[in-house]
Amino acid sequence: MKASFFPGRWHELPSGDLADCVDVGRMVEDAGLYGIQMGDHVVMGNRPDRYPYGQFRHELECPWPEPIATLSAIAAVTSTIRLSMSVILTPLRPAILLAKQLATLDVLSRGRLEPGIGLGWQREEYEAEGLEWRDRHQLFEDGIAVCRALWEEEQPVSFKGETVSFADLYALPRPVQSRIPILFGVVLNERNIELITRLGDGWTPVAGGEELRAGRQQLQDAFTAAGRDPDELIVRGGVQFGFDDHGRLDIARAVDEARELEAIGSDVVTLGLPVGFGRAFETMADLGTFIAEVGRQVAE
Fold it and tell me: How many Å apart are CA 48 and CA 38, to the nearest integer?
């Protein structure tokens, strides 16, 4: 099973030091896990009631380290784990700069980038950057199309879109991977299925179970209809560690749930730490022991 580790709330690390994310990267690699993931918010507004997936459980003051910068630091101290985002909110970043940043991270990691991308749910993040909330879908599409063009087309590259256009540009370095696999964290409607089929390589859904199974089939059918190999599709589902009756994080239950997701069509399974995980560890060494045990059980 390909299991990716998602710490989520970096400020809950036992050391209380966000810079220790690099040590977590080493722990994940030493445990033999597939990859490490990060979340993304550029800023937080004061309307968590707009969160569309149930209760928003993070404090508004919760720090969100920038994922490209943080994964670059982790890349420097690791050599095998895949570097990803649960989603990075690509419309909040200028398209050409986004392409350069992601290509650079792929180069620095020697071809280990596997980003999840999304639009986000906060109007405030768009407005703070002078972007129109109503334009988010077009910004999203144009941003990824620009990345594909600058990464994969013969240079100099020209592009004409609704939110960005340019002519005869050179953008180097190119990614190490001939095609960076991009996973879309979106609802599967007709527009998004077309986008994934044309510009993406996979899907990272919030839901699991039958919705994941059905979504995988929809995307495989769309890949086939578009002349793409359906076996190249990547679906990345996720489970979260829960606490047992003794206040410890229950590894066995999470791994069992991950195997169930794998069985119904998840190629990669994210194992995420919950809100409050910090109380389960007194030291960074304790966290390292936990991650090593996760790796051992995943490998069984």
Answer: 20
